[in-house]
Specification:
60s Ribosomal Protein L30, Chain: A; four-stranded mixed β-sheet; 20 helices; 2-methylcitrate dehydratase PrpD; 2 domains; 52% helix; alpha+beta
């Protein structure tokens, strides 16, 4: 008897997933992550990378799906890519820290595109989302994906296609053998580099979207008769051993439990590596009534693995570069007393006070913080004042993690703040539809609420 491969094990497990057997807390978390991703998608469709991705998709003149937040139509493959770009480009989408992967912005847009082409139920959508989240998290954990950042690889684009492939196969009710083949094909599409962040290369967002597209393309290839490697994960030249000297095989072998409730929400629209620093700085500003004009210098310390990514002393020339700049994010937070989308508008990017302060922000790696990483992405901030006094605050678990959660009301308020400017009164209808997805035989009301 041929031994079951890891792809076959994953495929069999998630093909058998049923909403009635999933813990209520997991289903509730899935609904909140769907809602959060939809808000990020809608807001991102109005940002420059999102608009460019939509234009690129519409130019191909497909007609399978409406681009959410727009009246434009595209093929479902191009729509999945464009909507994933929109969902991620605002840096507000969810992330599993231990797996180093942004999951919702890949999985949800891909399923939205697929559902417009094929129809489907709310229950089927929920089951597919959960299967996609679980697969991506397990793959990222198995290869210690956060370590890939230092080698130039982007964990989300490296791991995300697997989750999209499983989610799509689940939504289409594929049997395990076909799903396993799609996983093998998806393994051949993996890739995506993190380079270009400091200079603000917006095509990085397009590469993120391509991971969603590739996950769906793997199913198309399987449908057309292509075959993928059966042992995509465990082969000596397969996914896991190519990316990790010591893969954590247990995440792909023992499929008990759920990782979706661990996936973090983002309250701030900037790189997750900076959220703890933003939170710590806001705490200092509030507790000590610090005025930005009284600040002489700011020091942000983060885990050493993150320091190289967010230490960008040169003033950013565009929004994309500013999102991951520790110097800019700290300065903009101090000047504005907040961290939201307005902090990355042109007026703030060129503000003389922000540019002056960011030159006095130091970003450093701190080995003492490494013990928390990658399960948590902590930050320690010291604010030195012109009068010689100083204050320090450390945030180990930033807001949005399961150990420091956003409430359901906070997540809904975030959605409304992002979606209402586009949907108007339909934004509340979207919340109602997502909340009752497991009771809906059709997704028609969801697309109606989203304007498609």
């Amino acid at each position: 008897m041929v031994e079951e491969s890891l792809s076959e094990r994953l495929a069999g497990h998630y093909a058998s997933l049923r909403i009635n057997n999933i813990p209520e807390a997991v289903v509730r978390a899935a609904k909140l992550h769907i809602l959060d991703t939809l808000g990020c998608l809608l807001a991102g469709s109005r940002l420059d990378p999102g608009k460019r991705a939509y234009d690129l998709a519409a130019a191909a003149r497909g007609n399978d799906a409406t681009l959410v937040g727009s009246g434009a139509r595209a093929s479902y493959l191009d729509a999945a890519q464009a909507m994933a770009v929109a969902a991620h480009c605002g840096e507000m989408d969810d992330i599993h820290g231990g797996a180093g992967t942004c999951i919702g912005a890949l999985t949800v847009p891909a399923l939205l595109a697929l559902a417009q082409k094929n129809g489907g139920s709310g229950t089927g959508f929920l089951e597919a989302v959960i299967a996609g989240y679980e697969t991506t998290a397990r793959v990222g954990l198995a290869v210690d994906a956060p370590a890939l950042f230092a080698r130039g690889w982007w964990p989300s684009t490296v791991c995300g296609g697997f989750g999209v492939a499983v989610a799509a196969a689940k939504f289409l009710q594929w049997p395990p053998d076909r799903t396993a083949n799609a996983l093998g094909i998806a393994s051949l599409y993996t890739g995506g580099m993190i380079t270009g962040g400091a200079e603000g290369a917006t095509a990085r967002h397009l590469i993120f979207g391509s991971a969603a597209r590739n996950g769906l393309l793997a199913l198309n290839a399987a449908e057309a008769g292509f075959t993928g490697p059966r042992k995509a994960f465990e082969d000596p030249r397969g996914f896991c051993l190519t990316l990790s000297a010591l893969p954590k095989w247990e995440y792909l072998k023992n499929l008990d439990g759920y990782f979706l409730p661990e996936v973090a929400f983002k309250p701030y629209p900037c790189a997750r590596q900076l959220h703890a620093g933003v939170e710590a700085l806001l705490t200092l500003l509030r507790e000590h009534s610090v005025n930005a004009s009284s600040i002489k210098e700011i020091t942000l310390r983060v885990p050493t693995a993150n320091a190289g990514m967010v230490n960008r002393p040169a003033p950013p020339q565009n929004r994309a570069a500013a999102l991951g700049s520790g110097q800019y994010v700290m300065a903009a937070t101090a000047i504005g007393g907040k961290m939201d989308l307005s902090c990355f508008e042109d007026a703030m990017l060129s503000d003389v006070h922000v540019r002056d302060l960011l030159r006095r922000v130091a970003v450093q790696g701190e080995s003492e913080l490494d013990r928390y990483f990658p399960q948590s992405w902590p930050g320690r901030v010291r604010v030195g004042l012109k009068n010689g006094s100083s204050y320090t605050h450390e945030t180990v678990v930033p807001k949005g993690e399961s150990a420091n959660p956003m409430s359901e009301r906070e997540i809904e308020d975030k959605f409304l703040s992002l979606a209402a400017p586009i949907l108007g009164e339909r934004a509340q209808s979207a919340i109602d539809v997502v909340t009752s997805l497991d009771r809906r035989e059709s997704l028609r009301d969801l697309f109606a609420a989203l304007g498609g």
